[in-house]
């Protein structure tokens, strides 16, 4: 074989090798594309099937309401509103427990506590509460006036707040929650009794509601002799609940 012939043979072999290599490359490229299309179609069919199954399950098995979920308020429900307004003596009242304990369920109860408030301060605090147009206001105030005023002056201050409620919101029922006993000094304990006697007289005169706390004793008061202890707050709540249940 001449050199030129040998060269042509090598070139021919190389050309065939390149051609075969190109065929193999094309074969490798084409196969994934074909299977990719098949896989996409299969996936699409599976997703369609799952979607149809999910919709069917939703129709046949509606989602149950979780125990913690609340139903939306019914705008047609007429709730009677009660606001308990007072000084720090009412600060531990739980409005949720009050609401659940009252026999009349269509009753919305809220509390507004102003720590350190005396009668003069409460005359200002009561006005924003009346802007809510409550059906009933339960007023508890007076113990923070003990050091500065006598019994008649304290009772007069409480009655004046009752008159503010009546004048500013004529359709609101006024309820006076009498003062709770004190154990810090005998003098203040006697003064509480005197104030409560005058308040009861005025409640009868003005046809206001009256909540007594005669069942709250020294054992329900904290060591400082002023505020309720853990056993005392439930007694206060019980007295309010009893009054509301008697009214309904």
TrEMBL record:
This protein's record includes keyword Ligase: no
Coiled-coil ranges per UniProt: none
Gene3D superfamilies according to UniProt: SGNH hydrolase
Residues covered by region (Disordered): 1-80
Compositional bias segments (type: Basic and acidic residues): 1-27, 69-80
Entry keyword set: Receptor
GO molecular function terms noted in the UniProt entry: phosphatidylcholine lysophospholipase activity
SUPFAM superfamilies given in the database record: SGNH hydrolase
Record field: compositional bias (Polar residues): 45-55
Record domain SGNH hydrolase-type esterase: where: 87-232
Signal peptide location: none
Record has Acetylation as a keyword: no
Name of protein: Scavenger receptor cysteine-rich type 1 M130
């Amino acid at each position: 074989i001449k050199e030129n012939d040998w060269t042509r043979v090598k070139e021919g072999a190389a050309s065939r090798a390149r051609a075969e290599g190109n065929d193999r490359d094309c074969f490798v490229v084409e196969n994934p594309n074909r299977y990719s299309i098949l896989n996409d179609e299969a996936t699409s069919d599976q997703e369609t099937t799952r979607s149809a199954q999910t919709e069917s399950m939703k129709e046949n098995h509606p989602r149950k309401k979780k125990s913690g979920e609340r139903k939306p308020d019914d705008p047609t429900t007429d709730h009677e509103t009660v606001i308990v307004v007072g000084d720090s003596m009412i600060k531990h009242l739980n409005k949720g427990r009050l609401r659940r304990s009252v026999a009349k369920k269509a009753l919305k109860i809220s509390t507004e506590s102003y720590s350190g408030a005396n009668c003069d301060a409460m005359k200002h605090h009561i006005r924003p509460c009346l802007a809510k147009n409550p059906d009933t206001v339960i007023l508890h105030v007076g113990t923070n006036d003990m050091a500065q005023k006598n019994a008649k002056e304290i009772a007069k201050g409480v009655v004046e707040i009752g008159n503010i409620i009546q004048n500013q919101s004529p359709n609101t029922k006024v309820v006076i929650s009498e003062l709770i006993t004190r154990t810090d000094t005998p003098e203040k304990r006697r003064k509480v009794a005197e104030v409560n006697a005058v308040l009861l007289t005025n409640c009868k005169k003005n046809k206001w509601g009256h909540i007594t706390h005669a069942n709250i004793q020294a054992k329900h008061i904290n060591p400082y002799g002023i505020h309720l202890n853990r056993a005392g707050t439930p007694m206060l709540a019980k007295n309010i609940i009893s009054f509301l249940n008697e009214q309904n």
